[in-house]
Design brief:
mainly alpha
């Protein structure tokens, strides 16, 4: 600051006047302070005003630049927000589609499993019916066989009790004649 004052002779003169005048004229100090202030303003007023105006203009330019930067950043933020909102909506739509697809797949799988279960139950039921029928046939065959065996035993017992040799010879001869007549 002293270098600026040294380069400015008006500043040196104003300071000298502001210091010397009150000493020379010893009177009311308020008047001399006012006169000194006036001289100071006359000497430095324009330069102070130019400096203040320059600083204010510079500050205004800085504020204007900051406002423009803020507006640009705001626009960028709004663009990014719109992009992210669009991406979020796309992601929601995609998630909904994935969920719907998964539900359809689950329904198809459930239907397929239900049909497979029904088919398996139907086959097992048919197999069980076949096994039951086979078991019935085997049981019926066993019963018939046992009945035939019992009938043969019963007939054999009856024939042994009621049959004698004469009667047996008559039946044999009769059977032989029947066989001859049928063969010829």
């Amino acid at each position: 600051m002293l270098q600026k004052i040294k380069r400015n002779p008006d500043a040196i003169l104003a300071i000298a006047i502001a210091i010397v005048l009150p000493i020379i004229f010893e009177g009311d100090s308020k008047i001399w302070v006012a006169v000194s202030f006036g001289v100071f303003i006359l000497a430095f007023g324009r330069k102070i005003w130019v400096a203040i105006a320059g600083k204010l203009d510079e500050r205004a330019a800085n504020i204007e630049t900051e406002i423009e930067d803020a507006q640009r950043l705001r626009e960028e933020a709004q663009t990014l927000l719109a992009d992210y909102e669009a991406k979020r909506k796309e992601a929601e739509v995609e998630a909904d589609q994935i969920i719907m697809h998964a539900q359809k797949e689950a329904e198809r799988d459930a239907e397929s499993a239900r049909l497979a279960l029904e088919e398996t139950l139907k086959r097992r039921s048919e197999l069980a019916v076949q096994r039951i029928k086979h078991a019935e046939d085997e049981a019926l065959s066993a019963v018939r066989q046992e009945a035939a065996t019992l009938a043969i035993r019963a007939a054999s017992n009856i024939i042994r009790k009621n049959m004698n040799d004469d009667r047996a010879n008559i039946l044999i001869e009769k059977s032989i004649e029947e066989a001859r007549s049928k063969l010829h």
